[in-house]
């Protein structure tokens, strides 16, 4: 098989990334300048997992460990902004083929062709080499080795990143080097590798495989004494340093050298690729592996993990048990068979294989006794010599495998009990098990190494579509191919079926199949193949039918979850049970690989499994749909209860909504940080829940859900989603004629447009909100709309009108004794006084507002008021006071998690530094503000950008003041 074109050499143009040495980024061959070591560490972390979401928590942990700075998230936002600029080297020349760093909850995803990253290209070359003939294998591995430019990530200061990455990549290099030398020995090139091997053994004296290769090279070169000396040197070294003897492979090679075993002189793969045990009897060597899977792609990380397991076995001679697990159709068997073929030559005593039929659609699982009978026959035991008693059969089987090195592949295991009797008791063998269940019993009791499989990333999924279908489709229809891969959820079975459908009709456009599968009602039907029993639905059916009734019912209801992740509390509301029961059921579904747990107590489901579960729930629901409606209402009521509970830790609510009396359990939130963390994790679900409520015409619930997000929106400012959900909420409130909801939805739309730099649009929404509020009996709601009107009128330069609205609202709030809402009017009145030159009066109003926001513990708006105090102090030439206000604003903004307020504080601190003629500090502060504003899509990015353009000496007092909204 010729090497894959895109792996044979470096790309000639575009971006290339180097991890195997100092971190490098090249564009069209030119080295690109990178930032500081921490930024390079962040980029390296993303490059190590291309096309996979890297969470914000993992980035923070990688860069700082257990003691991150308070501004860790802010700093990473800045790094992300700079990395994005890195992929657009010249202004205005963004290329859709360039890598892209996209925000994807709960972190970031780097979209890039993994072949352009040297570490991934090297791993792919090493994996590819295993299927090649010796000469081509040697060449391919030599190409892989040229990718190393020195110590891995040698210019990265993150010790944690080094500990996580460097050993694996160093080991990959050693495996590639040893495999290349092995191929050279198979080709009879022992003279050529003697010098290289002697240097390597001196450098890595405890690697037994290198010593064995050097012994063989010396022996074939006629230097028998030196070959034996190598063995004695290693034996003494191992005894002195570790107190152990060389492993059985090396001991066997030494014994064969002593008796001049004639097979050692033959330069062929069968001999040079393995070292067989000395024996006077030639045992039967079964070779039962199924044929390799055609068109196998991806799984480089998993293959490398299996390689490491095998390397560990080589070093300590122990047997290894590996369990490859995952959901139906994820490619467990394909990986196991492909990898087993690649390493079969390492097991000279044969390979045993059994399909255990643990989840067979039509046949019952094989018993351990049946499997043992087959294995014993394969090992040469006559039928009449096989014991009837199971324990005796196990004993005979283990005796036959004693002192043998055998690979045993057990495919489709039902549970640990089916596997345990099939495990050999001797060292040197390897057992590879695949199962739809997690097989935790094997991990705990038998020391199995667990290897759970996830869906293929998009790049590998598209490659599989090409290889299994019509080659070249991904180049002719790249967007459609990526969309098809996404619709298949990266599930190899689904991808192969889709590819087969394209191959059966070569003239059919990929986009046509995409159109068919886009409709969720047709997707699973579209992933069937006519006249066969192969289908995604059939694969899922088998796992589903093995569930306990309560687990099956829970699984069906999960099809109603509108989002992609869910907690035990959410599922408890969905099922009408308590969270502990829901958690037990979810853990059981996790064991069956029908649900995953990507983070502790946060669960997820593969897209195709979600479609399958939805089909089941609607098929099982009565004609009225009462069961599914009750379950979905319970889930949305949970989101109402939980969001209301969480928002109160961020800032006081400015409405009368209260869901504390509902029956649903709330998440364990006791502080502001936990509340913000909950909203961050649930945000995609909350957005989808709002859409679901509106689509179901549960309009009051829809606008309630929207309103409960306001405090979170004020902190995080996701502008586009803010507009989207408030627009839906406004439609719902209007649909049912709910004036209170209409006022709040209009006000929320005004706030987002005001904060995102569109005061004209904001004024339109505020004015309509005020008109509706005049119909309400609640005077406080009308006063709120006046405060909002004042903020928009102020930004439009209509100061006298703004003052009138502020004063009217202030009188109303004071008459109502509402000190908290009074603070908003005071802040806005201060802005009017400031701009017309009454700065002392402005500062007095701000001090009153500050006191009231401290009383209410509204940190987000308190940070804004402190920033405003800093601005006024600058204009009053009270530089020390300004620095104190901005410093406290930064601290308060960090405590409440408001990145926009942090950016404003950094901007002000830069202004103060500039006025003190500390231009270097000023520039650093403005750069930080710019990176935060840019990463959040704020129009205020223009302010620090202009300061940086003009230079520190040209700093003027800021012209944009901050007014409060609802």
From TrEMBL:
GO BP terms in the entry: phosphorelay signal transduction system; regulation of DNA-templated transcription
Pfam families named among the record's database cross-references: BTAD, NB-ARC, TPR_12, Trans_reg_C
Residue range(s) of DNA binding per entry: 5-112
Domain OmpR/PhoB-type span(s) in chain numbering: 5-112
An example Gene Ontology molecular-function term: DNA binding
InterPro entries found in the cross-reference section: AfsR-DnrI-RedD_regulator, BTAD, NB-ARC, OmpR/PhoB-type_DNA-bd, P-loop_NTPase, Sig_transdc_resp-reg_C-effctor, TPR-like_helical_dom_sf, TPR_rpt
Record's keyword terms, sorted: DNA-binding, Transcription, Transcription regulation
Family membership: Belongs to the AfsR/DnrI/RedD regulatory family.
PANTHER family: TRANSCRIPTIONAL REGULATOR REDD (PTHR35807:SF1), TRANSCRIPTIONAL REGULATOR REDD-RELATED (PTHR35807)
Name of protein: DNA-binding transcriptional activator of the SARP family
């Amino acid at each position: 098989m010729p090497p894959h074109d895109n792996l044979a050499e470096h790309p000639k143009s575009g971006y290339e990334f180097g991890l195997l040495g100092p971190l490098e980024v090249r564009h069209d061959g030119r080295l690109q300048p990178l930032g500081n070591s921490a930024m390079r560490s962040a980029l390296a972390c993303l490059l190590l997992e291309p096309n996979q979401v890297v969470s914000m928590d993992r980035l923070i942990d990688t860069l700082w460990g257990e003691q991150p700075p308070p501004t860790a998230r802010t700093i990473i936002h800045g790094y992300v902004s700079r990395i994005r600029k890195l992929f657009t080297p010249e202004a205005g020349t963004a290329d859709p083929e360039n890598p892209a760093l996209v925000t994807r909850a709960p972190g970031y995803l780097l979209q890039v062709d993994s072949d352009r990253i040297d570490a991934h290209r090297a791993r792919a070359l090493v994996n590819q080499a295993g299927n090649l003939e010796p000469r081509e294998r040697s060449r391919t591995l030599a190409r892989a080795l040229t990718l190393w430019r020195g110590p891995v990530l040698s210019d990265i200061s993150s010790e944690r990143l080094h500990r996580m990455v460097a050993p694996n990549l160093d080991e990959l290099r050693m495996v590639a080097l040893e495999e290349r030398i092995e191929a050279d020995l198979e080709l009879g090139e022992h003279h050529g590798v003697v010098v290289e091997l002697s240097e390597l053994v001196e450098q890595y004296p405890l690697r037994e495989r290198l010593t064995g290769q050097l012994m063989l090279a010396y022996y074939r070169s006629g230097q028998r004494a030196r070959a034996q000396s190598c063995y004695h040197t290693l034996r003494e070294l191992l005894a002195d340093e570790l107190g152990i003897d060389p492993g059985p492979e090396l001991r066997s090679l030494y014994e064969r050298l002593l008796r001049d075993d004639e097979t050692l002189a033959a330069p062929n793969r069968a001999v040079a690729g393995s070292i067989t045990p000395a024996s006077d009897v030639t045992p039967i060597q079964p070779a039962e592996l199924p044929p390799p899977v055609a068109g196998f792609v991806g799984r480089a990380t998993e293959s490398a993990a299996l390689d490491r397991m095998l390397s560990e076995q080589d070093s300590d001679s122990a047997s290894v048990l590996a369990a490859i697990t995952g959901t139906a159709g994820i490619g467990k068997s394909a990986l196991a068979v492909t990898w087993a073929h690649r390493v079969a030559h390492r097991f000279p005593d044969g390979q045993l294989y059994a399909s255990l039929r643990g989840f067979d659609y039509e046949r019952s699982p094989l018993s351990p006794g049946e499997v043992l009978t087959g294995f014993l026959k394969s090992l040469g035991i006559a039928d009449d010599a096989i014991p009837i008693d199971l324990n005796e059969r196990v004993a005979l089987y283990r005796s036959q495998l004693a002192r043998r090195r055998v690979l045993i592949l057990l495919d489709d295991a039902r549970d640990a009990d089916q596997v345990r009797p099939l495990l050999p008791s001797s060292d040197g063998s390897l057992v590879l098990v695949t199962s739809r269940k997690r097989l935790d019993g094997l991990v705990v009791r038998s020391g199995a190494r667990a290897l759970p499989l996830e869906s293929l990333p998009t790049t590998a999924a598209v490659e599989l579509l090409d290889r299994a279908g019509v080659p070249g489709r991904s180049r002719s229809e790249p967007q459609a191919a990526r969309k098809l891969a996404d619709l298949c959820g990266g599930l190899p079975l689904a991808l192969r079926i889709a590819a087969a459908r394209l191959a059966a009709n070569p003239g059919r456009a990929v986009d046509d199949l995409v159109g068919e599968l886009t409709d969720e009602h047709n997707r699973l039907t579209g992933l069937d193949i006519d006249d066969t029993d192969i289908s995604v639905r059939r694969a899922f059916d088998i796992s589903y039918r093995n569930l306990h009734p309560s687990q099956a019912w829970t699984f069906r209801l999960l099809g109603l979850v509108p989002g992609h992740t869910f907690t035990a509390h959410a599922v408890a509301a969905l099922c009408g049970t308590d969270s502990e029961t829901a958690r037990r059921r979810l853990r059981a579904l996790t064991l069956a690989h029908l649900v995953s747990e990507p983070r502790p107590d946060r669960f997820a489901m593969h897209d195709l499994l979600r479609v399958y579960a939805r089909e089941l729930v609607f098929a099982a629901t009565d004609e009225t749909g009462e069961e599914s409606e009750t379950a979905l209402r319970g889930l949305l009521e949970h989101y109402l209860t939980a969001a209301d509970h969480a928002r109160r830790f961020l800032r006081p609510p400015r409405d009368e909504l209260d869901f504390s009396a509902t029956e649903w359990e709330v998440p364990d939130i006791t502080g502001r940080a936990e509340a913000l963390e909950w909203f961050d994790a649930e945000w995609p679900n909350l957005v989808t829940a709002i859409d679901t409520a509106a689509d179901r015409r549960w309009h009051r619930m829809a606008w309630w859900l929207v309103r409960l997000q306001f405090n979170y929106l004020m902190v995080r400012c996701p502008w586009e989603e803010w507009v989207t959900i408030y627009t839906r909420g406004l439609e719902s409130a209007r649909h049912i004629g709910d004036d209170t909801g209409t006022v709040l939805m209009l006000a929320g739309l005004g706030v987002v447009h005001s904060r995102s730099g569109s005061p004209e649009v904001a004024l339109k929404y505020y004015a309509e909100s005020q008109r509706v509020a005049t119909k309400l009996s609640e005077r406080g709601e009308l006063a709120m709309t006046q405060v909002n009107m004042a903020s928009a009128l102020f930004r439009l330069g209509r100061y006298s009108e703004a003052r009138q609205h502020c004063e009217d609202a202030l009188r109303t709030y004071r008459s109502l004794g509402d000190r908290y809402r009074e603070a908003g009017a005071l802040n806005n009145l201060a802005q009017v006084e400031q701009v017309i030159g009454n700065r002392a009066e402005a500062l007095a109003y701000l001090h009153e507002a500050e006191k009231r926001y401290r009383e209410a513990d509204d940190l987000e708006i308190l940070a804004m008021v402190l920033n405003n105090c800093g601005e006024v102090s600058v204009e009053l030439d009270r530089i020390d006071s300004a620095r104190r206000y901005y410093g406290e604003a930064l601290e308060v903004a960090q405590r409440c998690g408001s990145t926009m307020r942090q950016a404003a504080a950094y901007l002000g601190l830069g202004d103060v530094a500039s006025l003190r003629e500390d231009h270097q500090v000023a520039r650093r502060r403005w750069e930080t503000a710019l990176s935060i504003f840019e990463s959040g899509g704020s129009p205020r990015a223009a302010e620090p950008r202009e300061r940086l353009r003009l230079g520190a000496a040209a700093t003027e007092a800021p012209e944009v003041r901050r007014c409060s909204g609802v």
